Amino acid sequence: MKHSTTLAAILATSAAILASTPALAGSCPAGQTIANPLAGAPTAPSMVTDNVIGSVDLQKEIDVNNRDLRLRRLVVQPGGIVPLHSHVGRPALIITVSGQMTEYRSSCAVGIVHNAGEVSSESDGISHWWKNTGRGPAVLLSADVKARD
Q1: CA distance linking residue 8 with residue 39, whole number of Å
Q2: CATH number of the domain within which 115 lies
Q3: Region of 41 on the Ramachandran plot (φ > 0 left; ψ -120 to 50 alpha; else beta)
Q4: What is the per-residue pLDDT across 1-35, written as a single tens digit (0 to 9) for each?
Q5: How many CB atoms lie under 10 A from the CB of residue 13?
Q6: Number of domains in the chain
Q7: Which of 90, 108, 124 is nearest to 37 (CA)?
Q8: List of E strands, 4-148
């Protein structure tokens, strides 16, 4: 029952947030889609807090072994970094609640700016890293599917 309640709360919160925001935004600009090896990308977090708000065991919900659906709140200080990571087998949706972040993606030649209220889709095995390029802290909510450790 606890997992069903948690899942319902996550879905209700996500629906409320998404209902007041635009559709997916902040994609690679036209003509800039290329393979980008992200040479020299940062591999360690900097000036970021990452807290899991809740999670759901997907085996119990939809028969997907060893995976959790989780919701996290990240706060990234100005100049802070969410380091290089991959989304192979780990799709995610991220909403920038406040602030501004720039994403550097393995499929785009230029940085992709994400402003407050925008949602980013992370799937198809992309790799990327994010930097707070704004003047104040950026708050992100991330819902992703993660392999259980």
Answers
A1: 41
A2: 2.60.120.10
A3: beta
A4: 555 454 444 444 544 444 444 445 678 899 999 99
A5: 15
A6: 1
A7: 108
A8: 46-57, 67-86, 92-98, 100-105, 112-115, 119-122, 127-132, 138-147
User: Six-digit token pair at 60?
Assistant: 């119990």
Cβ atoms 45, 81 nearer than 8 A: yes
81-92 confidence digits (pLDDT tens):
999 999 988 899
Write down the residue that tokens 């994403």 correspond to: 103
92 beta partners: 122, 144
Which runs of consecutive H residues, i.e. helices, occur in the chain? Answer: 2-19, 58-62
In the structure encoding, which two tokens stand for residue 106, read together? Answer: 């393995």
Q: In 3-state terms, what secondary structure has residue 63?
A: coil
- The DSSP code for 124 is T
